[in-house]
Structure formats: C-alpha cells, structure tokens
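For homework, think about our next protein:
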Amino acid sequence: MPDPGVTRADERRRKWIALAALALALWIAHDFLTSLLWALVLAVALWPLLRGMRADSHGNTPVWAALGITAATGLVLMLPLAAAAFEAAQESGLAMAWLQQAQASGIPQPQWLAGIPLIGGRLTGLWQQYLATSSGTGRLIAQLDANTVLAWTKNVALQLAQGSLLLFVTLVALFTLLHRGAAIGARGMELVARSVGRDGDAFAERMVDAIRVTVVGTVFVALAEGALIGVGYAVAGVPKPVLFALMTAAFAMLPFGAWFVFSIAAAVLLVEGSTVAAALVFIYGAAVMLIGDNIVQPALIGRRAQLPFLLALIGIFGGIGSMGLVGLFVGPVIMTALLIAIREWLD
C-alpha cells in the first residue's frame, strides 16, 4: 500500500535517488559483476540440494549446509587446476633435464617433419638451422634472459592473484545466496512481480528453471564429452588417459577449452612418433565436440527450457561472445525471457 502522505514528487525523487545509488553501486562493483553473476547462477542450480532443510526463525538455511555446499563447489572448481599444477610440478624436473640436453646437443628432428606436403623441405631446413645443433638451440635459449622470465613470472602471479580474488568473491556471494536464499528469493519475486505485473511469479519461475536447466545440461554434456574423448585417449595410447579425460571434461565447459586439451594429447602422440594416432585423436575429439556443443547441448537445453533450437543455439553462443563464459548460462535465460514476453504480447 502506498503511503498517503507521500506525494508523486516525493515518489519520483525517491526513484531518482534509488537509480543514482544503483548506478554508483554498479560503477563501484563493475569488476566483480561477473563473479556475482557466477554466484547467482551456481546458487540457482544448487538450491534444490537445500530443499527440505529446516530453516531458522529468520527463514535462513543452516550455516553448515550452505558452507558445506560452498566449500564443495570451490573444490570442484579448483580440482582441474590443482591436478594440472600437480602434474606440471612432477614433470618440471624432466622438462629441465630435456632443456639442458637440448642446449648441449640440440633437438633431434622428428622423422615425420620432412614428409609434410609442400612445406616439409622448408621446415626441415629451419629445424636444422635453429634446433638441430647446440649452437642453434643455445641462441634461442639465450634469448630467454632473466628480465623476460621475471616479467613473465610477474604477469602470471598477477593473473593468479586476480583470479583468486574473483573466486573468493564468487564463493562468498554463493554462501550468502545459499544461506539467505529464501529471503533474497522472496524479495526478488516481489520485485519481478511489480515489474512484470500479471503472472510475475510464473515469469520468475521460468527464468530460474532456464538457469537450472542450462547449468545441468552444460555439465552433463561436458562430462559426456570428456568420457567419450577419454575412451579415444585410451585406445590411441595417450599417456595418462584418465588425467586427460578429466581435464577434457572440466575444460569442455570453457569456450574451446576441450579443443586445447585434446590438441595437446594429439601433440604428445605426434612427438612420440604416432602420427596416425595423433591425427585420429584430433579428428575424433573435434567430431565429439562439434556434435556435443552444436547439436546435443542446444537441443537438450532448448527442450527442457521450452526454447526453439535456433533460439537456444543463439542464446548459448551469443551469450559467450558478449559476456564470456557466464554468458553460456545467461544467454538462454535472456532468450527465454524474450520468448515469454513475445507470447504474452501475442496473447
């Protein structure tokens, strides 16, 4: 009920003050908007795990449940990076030994290099000039002076610090949303109902379902792609196929992430001399990713979210192109909102 003592001028003044405060808040927090969007997407997807739990007198879910789910989410997000760091630490000694050997005696030319059509002879000459002898590799390695290595190390450290801060903000926001989700959700439903008008609750429920379906569909497709490509790793003889399969499944949720992983696997086979196996791994991985990302995932998300295939496809790839990875989940939600608005207008 509006306050009878408040005039329309007062209402307009309050709205302008609220809009100004919102603009300032967005300007201050613009570096963390992606983290907050990630927290919102994860909270919506994980909220069914908290259903049925007894809330406190304020309607908040138990702290231990929200904290446990947040910690588990953080571990799942960090697991692929931790596995990669552990593997890199184990292989660092071999890499240093290989680098010392290359500096002392050069890098032997692979047999398949000369067989590349059209450019094989040229590549062979360049390899012999710059890599096959100790003097050539010594000149290349000498270019990696201390200043270059120091600058690269500082850049990596800065990126890690920024990523850690954004992950921390995401997890704190996720815990807040999970712990106080009932109250925040009620406020959000009230705001949507006031903004949309009739059937505002149904509109908000459709948005929530679209987010949840997109997250579940994306994770399911990524796991399936990692498992299928992992079978290809094992058959082709890729070293440590289970680790490569886990990395493929984890990075399949990133734009072209899985392509990077199975390209490395193919490169490993190529260095070992298994040219045919390397080509088959790359072709098989590309086929799985093209079918999974362009056919299975849009069809799965579109069917569950009641989106036409074309709108689901545009929402996924358009969201990634405009907002990055978080757009993968926000894009279909925006398309769902558009479809609901069109249907309401036509009705």
